[in-house]
């Protein structure tokens, strides 16, 4: 059972404002919930229409009706379960290894895909501008598939971060040097810009090396690669030198 | 003005069955419509809430109300315009160059992203299994951003295509050879498998060389890369040898 008040409170978590106020977020689907539960996230509430569901044979859900699940869900076609977790504080910034920086990535799906990529490529730190999509947006949580637990995501001023780091700063630009012909270090910062406008001018001024993925189409009409696919290619280029080592 | 019958007919095009019957599809937003109009697609109907819109200073829209646009739109938040285009027949299959093959990619967003990637990397032919998401699904049309006009997409039996080609056949597998250490030819076929189940067994039997993108995460927990981001990395690896030539 969920009361009207609970429904109101959980629905509030669909919005960033209330997530920040309550320091709580929503996850849906047993796979994502189980992954978050097994990692560092503290579960607060666990609802399901299916009484046979359990987390680690231990945590049983509060059984709710399909109608109520639909009310609290963010999905058009709700799963069988929804959980509320505590937001975990970000860990302190480290100035080492390979760090990815996002300059105003607005699409939650792109952010989610990029977090999965960081996890795959062993990038433990993702620095986001304050305008980047919210990590705890339900669409991001669904897209990350639990990898959110393994990447430290920090929202901060990119100018401050880039001024403080001693690592070489690379950025993705349409007119940068061809990445395939560029020597890439294993320790660096890589900046990816906004979907429509690219890297902002103040951030661009702090970038030491511009790189790009060349276009091979004859007609040269494709405007740009999607930011998540461009990130995939560039992270692969940075990481390949470690392959087999 | 749109009549009730027109609304019914256009709404029908949200479904594959009616698109196939009528050989028509929907595009929304002036950018996508303009790109399709400028390429090989024949426009049938053009509706807008904005009387100032025109295609190449020539084609004016039928003005409709926001309420009617909402009825015929596939988007939650409709744009200001919607057009109906004729489906263009696929061109005959060529057995040359680099061809991408999709084995049951179900997500329209993934298919759209992959078509944009083909366009970027100058891959003119995309072979899809019959079970792959429909090219003319409105979500695919929105995600391709017009690059659909520059890639020949053919739905056919993958077994037949792979048996007919004389090009070397590569496939993406979790346990394949590390792509970074593999010599890749400039002319080849690359097969990408379904989001959840990978490449089907009958197709796998026809693959000559399995390749994979190694995982760098310490914990090795990320289950897999999203198929669109994996495609991005592999196409980049195939194409880079052409860079600067």
Main sheet: strand order of chain A: 7-6-5-9-8-10
What is the element string of chain A, with H for helices and E for strands? HHEHEEHEEHEHEHEEHEH
Number of structurally distinct domains of chain A: 2
Give me the Rg of chain A, rounded.
20 Å
* Assembly status: homodimer
What do you see in this structure?
Two copies of one chain form a homodimer. The first copy, chain A, has 245 residues and is an alpha/beta fold. Chain A has two domains: 4-86, Ribosomal protein L30/S12 (60s Ribosomal Protein L30, Chain: A); 98-242, SPOUT methyltransferase, trefoil knot domain (Alpha/beta knot, 3-Layer(aba) Sandwich), CATH 3.40.1280.10. In chain A, 31% of the residues lie in helices and 21% in strands. Chain A is built from nine helices and ten strands. The first copy, chain A, has helices spanning 4-12, 16-22, 30-38, 66-72, 108-120, 138-144, 158-164, 201-204, 227-239, and strands spanning 24-28, 43-48, 62-63, 81-86, 98-102, 125-128, 152-155, 169-178, 188-192, 209-212. In chain A, the strands form two sheets. In chain A, strands 7-6-5-9-8-10 form a six-stranded parallel beta sheet. In chain A, helix 5 links the parallel strand 5 and strand 6 (125-128). In chain A, helix 5 packs parallel to helix 9 (227-239). Chain A is elongated. The model of chain A has no long low-confidence stretch (mean pLDDT 92). Chain A binds chain B through residues 109, 113, 116-117, 119-122, 145-147, 150, 178, 180-181, 213-219, 221-223, 225-226, 228-233, 236-237, 239-240, 242-244, and chain B through 109, 113, 116-117, 119-122, 145-147, 150, 178, 180-181, 213-219, 221-223, 225-226, 228-233, 236-237, 239-240, 242-244. Chains A, B: It comes from Flavobacterium lacus. Chains A, B: This is TrmH family RNA methyltransferase. Chains A, B: Residues 98-235 form the tRNA/rRNA methyltransferase SpoU type domain.
